[in-house]
Amino acid sequence: MTLKVALLSVAVSAISFAQPMPPRPPSYPPVDLDRMVQRVALYPDSLLAQVLSAATFYDQIPDAARWSDEHHYLQGNALAAAIQADQLPWDPSVQALLPFPSVLTMMAGDMNWTTQLGNAVLAERDGVMDAVQRERSLAMRYGYLRSGPRVTMIRTGPYISIDAVDPAYVYVPYYDPAIVYFPPRPGFAIGGAINFGFGFSLGAAFRPWGWGPGVARIDWASHGWYFHNAVWGRTWGNRFNYVHPYPVGLRRFDHPGPPVAARPAVAPHPEGHQLEQRSAREREADRTGARRAEEHGRR
Questions:
Q1: pLDDT tens, 217-252?
Q2: Which domain holds residue 92?
Q3: How far is CA 98 from the centre of its chain?
Q4: Rounded-to-integer distance, Cα 195 and Cα 139, Å
């Protein structure tokens, strides 16, 4: 019996050592975090909170970008109804970006950046939030970032908030990170460096996904953000089982589970809408913040 126990112990030890160790959380120096957030640091706070959350589900971004592109002609209540009807399998933070095809296209187009951003949010949230504030401070110091008819800059102590004037109409700013975080060269028109020219209407139908007055907010002092008054608390340690208490309409996501790769395949829900990708002109208009005419059905 003693020999059997000893052999069993050796076998268990061998199995234990054969198991891969959990990956350690990544670590990024401040200079890398600064570069990492530059693309999104000047987004309004509500949109920034959604982007940072969705980036942690980076494996879902390419499919979501494709869906958003193919349904870009739907807006307002029609788009919200389509998202619900298609029973999309992605986290609500990813679904919250479906009204913004240009944002999802940007994230899907550079998955290395999106993955790094998501991992940084999970492992070093305080560092990510501090980096956003450093970049905002630079843009404000050099005169690029300022209040206007569409967004309001609010400085509370060391923190700069960017809020949409109308919470139901969210603008995606277009800017060049190589310009807005550096001193302007002589003769450069500072006022045109950040374009808040085109936005998206997000009425009451989008409230379940975290849109609307007071629904999504960032608490810069605590380095956290809230959806529906519940702190978004996904971290590197709980990334395989963290569950955010979204509203009843999105409760199919309210259960812990294994990593995405280990979950059983889900049969796609029948598509009830015509699929129509954006034209080259529509893509460029979305990318640069220009107002575009809808071309769906005109080709």
A1: 999 999 999 999 999 999 999 999 888 888 866 644
A2: 26-254
A3: 10
A4: 13
Q: Cα(162)–Cα(165) distance, rounded to whole angstroms?
A: 9
Beta bridge partners of 218: 225
Residue 217 inside a domain? The answer is yes
Strands 159-164 and 151-156, bridge-based pairing: antiparallel
Q: Please, what's the largest Cα pairwise distance for the chain?
A: 88
Q: Residue 263 domain-assigned?
A: no
- Residue 74 near residue 200 (C-beta atoms within 8 A): no
Provide the residue type at 298 as one letter.
R
Determine contact, residues 83/98, Cβ cutoff 8 Å.
yes
Q: What is the pLDDT of residues 43-87, one digit of tens each?
A: 999 999 999 999 999 999 999 999 999 988 888 899 999 998 888
Going along the chain, which residue ranges are E strands?
151-156, 159-164, 169-171, 199-201, 216-219, 224-227, 230-231
| Burial class of residue 113 (count of CB atoms within 10 Å of its CB; 0-12, 13-18, 19+) | middle
Domain-embedded: residue 271: no
Judged on CB neighbours under 10 Å (0-12, 13-18, 19+), 232 is buried
Helices and strands (DSSP H and E) totals, the chain: 11, 7
User: Who contacts 114 (Cβ-Cβ below 8 Å, separation ≥6)?
Assistant: 55, 58, 61, 107, 108
Q: For the stretch 63-96, what's the b/e string if a residue is b when 16 or more beta carbons lie within 10 angstroms of its beta carbon? A: ebbbbbbbbbbbeeeebbebbeebebbbbbbbbb
Domain count, the chain: 1
Alpha carbons 11 and 20: distance in angstroms, whole number: 16
One-letter amino acid at 270 equals: P
Residues 6 or more apart from 101 whose CB is under 8 A from it?
A: 65, 68, 69, 72, 278, 286
Question: Is 260 domain-assigned?
Answer: no
- Check if the beta carbon of residue 101 is closer than 8 Å to that of residue 72: yes
